[in-house]
Structures are given as C-alpha cells and as structure tokens.
Amino acid sequence: MPRFALPSFLLAAAGAAAVGLVIQTKPAQAKETAGTADSATPRWYKGNTHTHSLWSDGNDFPEMIVDWYQQRGYNFLALSDHNVLHAKEVWMAEPTILKRQKSVGKTAMAKYLERFGDTWVERREKDGVKEVRLKMLEEYRPKFEKEGEFLLVPAEELSANFAVTPELKAPIHMVAFNLKEEVKPIEGTSFKDVMRKNLQAIREQEKRTGQPMLTHINHPNFRWALTAEDMAEVLEENFFEIFNGHPSINYLGDATRYGHEMLWDIANTIRISKLDAPPLYGVGTDDSHHYHGEDSAPGRGWVMVRSKSLKPDALISAMRAGDFYASTGVTLADVQFQDGVLKVRIQGEPGVSYTTKIVGTPKKYDATVSERPTNAEKDPQPVRKVYSADIGKTFATLPGETVEYKLTGDELYVRAVITSTKPHVNPTYENQTQMAWTQPVGWNVKSKASASR
C-alpha cells in the first residue's frame, strides 16, 4: 500500500491517539455556560453544515432558511450552496423561484415578504420580468447572529465531477466550512485525484489566509459515485457524512453496494490497519433543498459539537479532535473515552428505549476481499469489493441510557451507534427511528510526516 503525507492537524490527532489521548473531556455543562462567548468548560452546540438555498438549487431565501433553524434551537448553520459563496450581487427572476416550489399554497415570495417586509426585500423589473435580489451573507447575518447563541458560517458545497466516460459523470461533492474565498471545482484523472486536488485547493486557502477551515465528503452513494477505498486513500480528508437527510443519496445502499455504515467501517479499517493513518469522523447533515413541504426537507440530521465557544475556530478544533457526534434525534448528555473505556450517557425521553451497539473491527480481522459486479449500466464503478463480516463487527449490544464498553485490546477501533424506539419526525427511509453516532476511538497510528504522497 502507498503511504501518504498527512496534513499537520491530522498528524497532531494521530499523535494524541498514539498515547491514548482520544476525547478525554469532562461532561458538558450546557446550562451553566449557555449564552457566553467563551468558557473554560465546553458545552454542546447543535449545527448543520450542509444546506441549500436559492443561491444554487434550493427553493427558499437564505433568510427564511436561517430563521427556520434558529427558531428550532440550532446554534450554528452553514448555507453551503454549490460552488458559490453568498458574497456577490445576484438577482433572480420571480417566475424561476416559483417553478422550484413543488408544493401548493403560499409561495416562497409571499412568505418572504410576509416575514421580512417590503423595506428589506429588494425587487425590480427587468425586460418585463420581476426579479428579487438575493441577500449576501454579510447583509443578513446581523439579523440572526447572537454571540454565544447563534452563528452563521460561510460555506460552499464544492461540486466537482469525474468523467468516467463522456456520457457518465460521477458527482464528487465536499462541503468547505468557514471559507474566506469562493473555490472553483477542479477536474482530475480519477475519483481520488478529483478529491485530492479540490481538498488541496481548500488547504492552500486555509494556509494562505490563516483562517481555519474544515471539509467533509458528502453522500458517497449519491449516484454511487464513491467507494470506501476512495475515501480511505484520500488522506487529505478526515470527515464524511455518516448521515445525509436527502432521500436520494442511497444511504442504506442496495443488494450489491454497501450503505454508509459499512462504507465507514471499511474505510477506517483500511486507514488504520493498512495506511497507518487516522480514521474518518462521521458528520450528520440535512442536505436540505426544499422548504415548503417537499421531499428534501430540513431538520433530519445534525452534529452536536462540544466546544469551549461558539466560534468557527473553536468548533473546527473540537471536530478535528473528534469531540462531536452525529444525530437524527437522539441527544447524548455525555461521551467519554478514557483509560480504554468508552462511556455514553443518553439524555432519555419518557416512553422511549435505547440500544447502543459497539461497532468496529478486530485487530486480527479476516482480510479476505473478493469482487462483485453491480449489474448496473450507469454505475460509475460497476465492480465493488466485498469484505468479510469482521469489518464493522458488533462487539456488544447494550441497553439503557448509560452504557460503558471496556476495550479488550483486540479491537482495531470501536464506535457507538445509538438507536431509539422513537420514530424519526420526518423519515427519509421506511421505518426510520432516531439515532446517534459517536466517533471512532481506541485506534493507534503513527505519524508518516516523511512519507511521500
């Protein structure tokens, strides 16, 4: 297997893991620190990093979307439209806005005027067509931001493609969080090459501007674009979407292709055991496009980040350290990994029961790999690798609201998957219940700073 040089922040994470310093944090004190800009005691902040508006292929105004999230208790939000930042003058035809709205009833324009009024909404008529100006982030953020309570973070969904054939293009999308400048997608010679070139462009901006930035791979199964091997070998990336709320991203996989859970475990097994590199961390997002009762709705998935402050650099630092979890409804009061023990404390609800699975891969796993065709004409990668049942193995199934798992020393890594009996309020697949995912712990890798990419 080839070796790769790691970005400096991943080397730091790897070094911490090597000496057993993974997520050694104290329980959050949310009530005591709420509303403060900085606190010595971290607290949990709820956020969504993947959201679309009229700036790309969404169907509502950014202010309406931000208002929705703020009113529902989110602490931070990134409007991540395709290949654009909300930082330039854009006018949009009102008939175009109406066409995007699939539901009946009050139009997006009428709702916008009702909520923000004529003095805020800027309209004109050009060549006989009514238009409305889309507000820029710096214009609308003062309406919503409140120090220590709600934050808007500039972001972009960098949406590149890999042309498998002239007729078949595979979408390779990544959110860039806390950008300073717009990034244009870059083409490449392979799935991995496209990811690497675009990630390197973001890292270059981060280094040049001194502004910390975070990226994550989006919906790997969207149009079946990416494999676990692709995600494993691109070590410039350390995050991916374990849950994405869009109903068309094939979260569960199918009869011949793995779902997100197994993709995560395969990628992390390869990273830790073969590449001697830190694992991918899993984020939860909405990937919302529709806000009027249609299929790609907001509020389906999010991250809970334990941070000392509600500032981009603090949030990014906490996520790079793995001090966060992904959720579709389950709230965790605390997550700790210390002295080889993973502890999860769930904030339970009356009448709801919880099951926690401790999932991972044994150190001495069966590394047998075979191949199978997907029998799909439009699959950009029609032959997929098949792995043994050792990968993504369930080490324990634990009931209750407080669980502990002590590593035996035989695990390559473990993570917790918490499933509740409470149905999801807006499911994306049949019989979906509320869940949460913690990050991989117990792994041990060495830095490869001198290795060549």
TrEMBL record:
SUPFAM superfamilies linked: PHP domain-like (SSF89550)
* Protein name per the record: Polymerase/histidinol phosphatase N-terminal domain-containing protein
Show which residues constitute the signal peptide: 1-30
In alphabetical order, the GO MF annotations are: 5'-3' DNA exonuclease activity; 5'-3' RNA exonuclease activity
Kindly give the PANTHER family that the UniProt entry links to this protein. EXONUCLEASE, POLYMERASE_HISTIDINOL PHOSPHATASE N-TERMINAL DOMAIN-CONTAINING PROTEIN
Its keywords, alphabetically, are: Signal
**Species per Swiss-Prot/TrEMBL record:** Roseimicrobium gellanilyticum
